[in-house]
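Protein 1 of 2
SEQ + STRUCT:
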Amino acid sequence: MNILKKISAVFSAVLLVTTATAYVPEFSVDAAPDEYHDDWLHVNENAEIVDMNGNPVWLTGCNWFGYNVGSQVFDGVWSLNMHWAINSIAEHGFNLLRVPMSTQILLQWKNNEPDDIIKVNEWTNPELTVDGTVGGTPKYSFDIWNQAVEWCRENGIKIMMDIHSAETASAGHQYPLWYNDKYSVDDWLEALSWFADYYKDDDTIIAIDLKNEPHGKKDEGNFAKWDGSSDKNNWRYAAEIGAEAVLSANPNLLIMVEGIEVYPKFENGFDWDSPSTDYAHYGDESKQPYHGAWWGGNFRGARDFPVNLGEYQSQLVYSPHDYGPLVYAQSWFNKDFTRETLLDDYWYDTWAYLVEENISPLLMGEWGGFIGEKDPTGDNTKWLTILRDYMVEKRIHHTFWCFNENSGDTGGLIASDTNWTEWDEEKYALVKPALWQTEDGKFISLDHKIKLGQSDSGISLSDYYSGNPSSPTTTSVSTTTTDKTEDKNIVGDANCDSALNIADATAIIQYLGNRDKYNLSEQGLINADCCNQGDGVTGLDAIAIQKYEAKIYTSLPVKE
């Protein structure tokens, strides 16, 4: 970082004493700590996110979209088993799930309006059907969502709901504002308030992202600005009233506030009414009217006009988005870029100053992209690695974009063209060092009682801070199983736990998707072959176990 920027940072920090430090946080947990009220998080005076005991935590998660685009459920549940997917996310060490939604779907649920369509494979998801049978009628989308919340809870995963768009539509996020001609500001506030109130006694829902990627420029029509006004399109003001709608219902939720797209170069005489391009100096970025950024990534306005949540300031977290050159060839990639050049050319003044100057914690709400064969120059992988290492060093919280295999410009943690069955192990290996874990590789939950995942790969928050990270506790969540015996040779008992239940179907699905990572024991392979015995382990075996659970079959093995 150059010396002028360092000097500027010092002066800026001094000036902020009259603004940001006017809201020194004082927090308390309103409800008595118990299974559903002991995991709320807050921001302390050192700009750290901490638990109820003041211990710092690290939110390291991923995104899984679908509820915002019209699927009425997570994308991919038209193919994969949702329970397996949530288990797998936890087993891979992600302790937070950011879930894009829309104002429309939240109001639909609030008003109990019917689903237009719901993309659920009822054969691979009998638990998501009305009567719990293979091939049955899918449940209402809100009931399926609450099943997902329950499965996240039993895995120690916390949830951040993100209002991705006003309308439920695959391109809904392209509209720049948190309101449109169908869903007003009042509708947005109503949706936020209802959601916060509904889950106020469930700390599985730990944060709300008020609006995904506000953006736009004046001459494009609608645009989001950031200033001291109460104008309808002023995102800073909107974020304050949106946060009030949430926190008046549940004062313990973390509030994620994203940035905008452009900020005027006031120092050069420009303002919000300036055109987005000075054509007299076209191509000379230094003389253009605005400082540009990724959608949702520009926090230059937060220096002059920080978000003020008043008595709830301890719940504020700024949440930029950042992407690499394969999403768009931004000017700061037009060189042999390094961390230093990225900070000087873009990151520092746009969002990094907030953590560098200890003003606010940051949660990188979206970062991701293609690597390997889909990154022929290697620049996207280089950028991902630089950002990852910077976030690890600065303890920046983050949710990787994304779990989905069907994100067109980034790909996902699920490998492309695998029908949602296999993880992209190369991409996961890149992300893994940025997941919260102990020195011996135990992934750390944000839940005080429940470890992360169903195996011994994760521990609870209490385990970590008790100084016993290698001795995971068992979860307090009960599961329904058949009667157990000491006999390991039970037909269908793929995981050899002496019980026959849906966990065995999940074990088979995992094994078929990735045999190297989710291998079955020799006895497990014998037990798993419960449909058309002798043909080896196939998807029909998982379906047979699901049918047995649903009481369609009275015994195993079966022949089809």
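Protein 2 of 2
SEQ + STRUCT:
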Amino acid sequence: MSLTSVLSNASSGLVAAQSSLRTTSDNIANVNTEGYVRKRADQAHRVVGGVGSGVEISDVRRVVDQFLVSAGLTANSTASRWGLVSSNLDTAQSLFGDPTSSTGYFASLDKVWDAFGATASNPTSGVLRSGAVAAVNNFFSQTSSLNAELKRMIGSVDDRAKSTTNDINDLLAKISKLNTDISRSSIGSGDSTGAENVQLGLIEDLAKLIDIQVQPRSAGGVTIRTSEGFELVGDSAATLAYRSSDSTSGYLAIQYPVGAEQPITVTGGEIRGLLDLRDNHLPKLSEQLGEFAARAAERLNAAHNASSSSPPRNVLEGRDTGLDLPTAVGGFTGQTTLAVTDASGVIQRRILIDFSAGTMSVDAGPATAFTPATFLSTLNTSLGAFGSATFTNRALTLTAAGTATAAGIAIDEGTSKKADKAFSHFFGLNDLVRSSGQTLYETGLKTTDPHGFTAGETLTFRMTQQDGRPIRDVTISIPAAVSMQDLLNSLNANTTGVGLVGAFSLDAQGQLSFAPSTTPPISLAVVSDTTQRGAGGPSVSGLFGLGVLEKGSRASRLFVDPKIAQDPNKLALSKLNLTVTAGTPAVSPGNGQGAAALAAAGDVKASFDPAGTLGAITASVADYAAQFSGAIGASATSAANQKLANQAVAEEVDQRRQSVEGVNINEELVRLTTFQQAFNASARMIQAAKELFDVLTNII
């Protein structure tokens, strides 16, 4: 071996040891630096012309376990998702209050039953009447406020989803720029570990926002993809866009420099949690709140319509049924009795309506036949000079002749029934709780009834995947054919309707619902609805409760009848007694049967539609309240458990990563000593070569 070879080998060893010392020194200096990954200088044999010529540093790289990195990103992404859901559900749960407390939301309904129970024992007490009205008003005011808070939370989540998408795009741009820096450094055989550490920190931040797959690039840097394979970062960064509307689900779409925007699947990270909250958890709470409040109002109204104030009210104003009168009257069975009384409650005229027989009889006289089309005229004839009936804007109104204090109308619901509601209840003639729109969707319509919508009006649905990604929009025109079956046929058509993904059906109570037929099931959202049932009437979605907006707004529509709120004496706390002798008051102020019925309304079983996390059940309002409060707590607890489980996984992975990637000061000191000795050995070798060269020079 020549002196030149000796010097070359020694100098290469000197440089290699120096580089290793610098690497080890960096590790020791950053022992407490968060996010720092230990690096190592890899040495390799240097071969020149097929002959060994010392050593060289082949690479300075970070000591990374890619499996642990990937596991950590996934765990942190999932934990971030459920952490966000958990915190928001905790907030939503706090809005309802402690279900065991006397000040919580559900306790306010208990106070309604208690108030009417107290009134039943003393129905003439003005203080107790006012207290009962205040209790009902307080419950529905709380319901409206609670629903407004849930809507505010949905809006806040929607805004945060937009800002989170911007944060994702910002991180993608930074990671892409570091890809360029790392690749440039790798080509120049430089130390890119600093940039790689910074990039890893950005990737970890990104994983908390959205689920990702990360793969190292041969040229340095990383390729980042979505869970389904769309490239987010490679040679350049893609751009994500958040798309949402009030009536449809939110989703993320990816946009490349060339090509159309493409919806993507999101399964983790904050953005998934935000989408879940916006389109699933919070709307379900709002929908369930609406179902609960609407059924509570229905039970109160059923009892109130079966009762009468004392003296009876001069005018009974019905609700907007959404139907024309013949359709509304058609389908009723059983009997009901209308009584016109004087100011003292003595019956002046009594009309028995037998829907099953299709007849009316006045004061037990001969029966007069009627049809749904002639119902109003026959009723007016039967009332004669004692009152009148009108039907305007889809609402029935009964008026007693004379001044408000001289005459009134009382109703005995009898056996009448349609869509599980008695006559007065169906028309809302004596409702205690009013609404500014439809709150229950049992229309009583049959497939043979006219649908009532104008031909050519349109209803647009959006079909969406379970994660909110849109499939396509379908616009359905109201058919010229007039029956509900014809409308169902249009809705369920394979080419122009939703028949390929499911079907609409009309149940025995006249409620329209959609059942998906695909696996996994698709969802329908109402994008637009220009239909009207009659002039100024409800739309298809409004009448039948289709879409998130419709069902989610019910809880904000309910309020105490303003006339009762202004005058609690109009509360129907008595019952019409048809067994009294002539000339004896049939309605008396001391009769508290109506108040007792209102107090017991919470224990009467009702059919609850599927809402939120609860399916269709038959239960009392009180029982449903317990299940509702339990479901809220269960959802919050489930999210918290998911968060804790994934946090535990993330912490375990982090500890394992630290054992691999972290700096152990003792190990680094050993390496430092080793490389110092190697440096000294190479230096001595150079010194020896110099001395040998000097000796040879002196000999010559």
